[in-house]
Write a structure and sequence with these properties.
Elements (H helix, E strand, L loop, with lengths): L4 H25 L16 H24 L9 H17 L15 H30 L1
Helix pairs in contact: 1-2, 3-4
């Protein structure tokens, strides 16, 4: 079924988010947890893990059928464009970690903590800026 382009793009965004969720679920079920601040606790018996993986795979297949039914076609996106978006998102997230942007939580930072946090955000933003420059080089090549 052919959809209006606006509806198609909305469904494509949903499918993309669900695919990312499926990928995370597969990583967790495979025991691949390399997070810095989140550690997945608990384990599953092999049989339960296999059943869950099978269900995740069936969900992925159903999602693929959904996309086919509504003629959602893959769109080629340049790697540099994707990386640029990720770098921009990282910059925004880090800027939102500044104490002045976290006043809405109702608890002020101690001055020394605010200074330390700002310094660390600046340090991370330097890494993001370095990454951005490398991505821009991709655009120029």
């Amino acid at each position: 079924m052919k959809l209006d382009e606006r509806h198609q793009r909305r469904l494509e965004a949903t499918v993309q988010l669900l695919e990312e969720s499926i990928a995370r679920s597969r990583r967790w079920l495979a025991g691949m947890d390399a997070g810095i601040v989140r550690v997945v606790r608990g384990s599953l018996p092999d049989r339960s893990r296999e059943r869950l993986l099978r269900e995740v795979d069936l969900f992925h297949a159903a999602l693929h059928e959904f996309a086919s039914k509504f003629e959602l076609e893959p769109r080629a996106v340049a790697l540099a464009q994707l990386l640029t978006a990720e770098v921009s998102t990282a910059w925004v997230m880090l800027e939102n970690c500044r104490p002045k942007r976290m006043k809405g939580y109702g608890v002020a930072f101690a001055p020394e903590t605010a200074a330390a946090l700002n310094a660390e955000v600046d340090r991370l933003l330097e890494r993001v800026e370095s990454l951005r420059r490398e991505v821009e080089r991709l655009n120029g090549e």
